[in-house]
Amino acid sequence: SYGTAMAYVATHNGHSVMVYARSKEVVDGINKNHINPKRFTDVKLPDSITASTDIKEVLKDAACVIHAVPAQHTPDFVGKFKDAFVKGIPVVSTAKGIHVKTHRLMSEAIPAALGDRSEEIPLVFLSGPSFAKEMVKGHPMAVVVAAHELKMAQHVQKILSSIRFRCYASNDVIGVEVGGALKNPLAIGAGMARGLGFGQSTIAGLVTRGCREMRQLAIALGGKPETLAGLSGVGDLMLTCFSSLSRNNRCGMALAKGKTVVIHD
C-alpha cells in the first residue's frame, strides 16, 4: 500500500515513476488500466506511473529509488537485488521498525545486506505521520527524510517535496528511525487501552510517557532528543495512537478483546 502511495505522491512534482512488482497481474493493471488491482482499487493512478516485473528495468534510469518493503523482509530483498542498485543513486527507505532476527534498525540492516556495495549506495530514511490511504486522496501532510549527510537528505527533499507532501531534511538518522520504530508497540498499547474500554486520559498518559521513553532510547543510541519532538517522533506517535486507521492500534484493540495474533513467515 505504501509503495503505491509513494509512487502517487512522487508524481506531484512532474516525475515519471516506475513501480517494481512481482505480480504480472499488478503490472498489467497499472500499465493498462492505471489501477493497482491489489491496493487502492478505487484510485485511478496518474499516467506517469508505470510498472515492471524486471527490477533492472525499474532501476536503470532512476534519479531516486523509493524502497517500500516491510522491515522484516527488507534485508532479504536488498541482499537479493543489491547488484541492481545504481552507484550514487539514493535509496529512500520507508520501512519503519527493528529487524527482529538481527535486532537492527534499517540504517544498520540495509548496509549489512548491501555488503561490499554499502559505500556506493546513498541511503535516506523517510518517516513521519503519513497513512497511505490519505496520501492517495491528496491530503496535505509532512514527513522527514534523514541521511548521515544532510546534503543527501536535502537532495531527496527537493525530489519528493510538494505542496501536499512536505518533506523536511535531517541528518539525525538514529533519532528518525527510533521514532518510526518505537511508535509501533506504543500504538499497540494505546489500542489495548481503548479495547479495554479506557478513555482518552489513559491513552494520553501512555503516549506522553512513551514519548519520554523514545527520547531516552534515541539519546542512548546516539540520536538527538529534539528529533523525537518532531514528525518522526511525536507526530507519528500521535497519528498511530489516536487513529483507527492504524493497523497497530487495531491490533491492540483486537488483543484486548481476546483475539490472538497469527504470525505468517
Short description:
The active site is at 183 (proton acceptor). This protein has 265 residues and is α/β, with parallel strands linked by helices.
Describe the protein in words:
The chain has two domains: 1-173, 3-Layer(aba) Sandwich (Rossmann fold), CATH 3.40.50; 174-257, N-(1-d-carboxylethyl)-l-norvaline Dehydrogenase, domain 2, CATH 1.10.1040.10. The chain has 265 residues and is α/β, with parallel strands linked by helices. It has helices at 2-10, 24-33, 55-59, 74-81, 106-114, 132-135, 150-160, 173-195, 200-220, 231-242, 247-256; strands at 17-20, 49-52, 65-67, 91-93, 98-99, 104-105, 123-127, 141-146, 165-170. The mean pLDDT is 92. The protein is globular, with a radius of gyration of 18 Å. Helix 4 (74-81) packs parallel to helix 5 and helix 8 (173-195) packs antiparallel against helix 9. Strands 3-4-7-8-9 form a five-stranded mixed sheet, with helices on both faces. The chain has a two-stranded parallel sheet with strand order 1-2. The chain is built from eleven helices and nine strands. The chain is 46% helix and 13% strand. It is an enzyme of class 1 (oxidoreductase). NAD(+) binds at residues 132, 247. One of its GO terms (molecular function) is NAD binding. It catalyses: sn-glycerol 3-phosphate + NAD(+) = dihydroxyacetone phosphate + NADH + H(+).
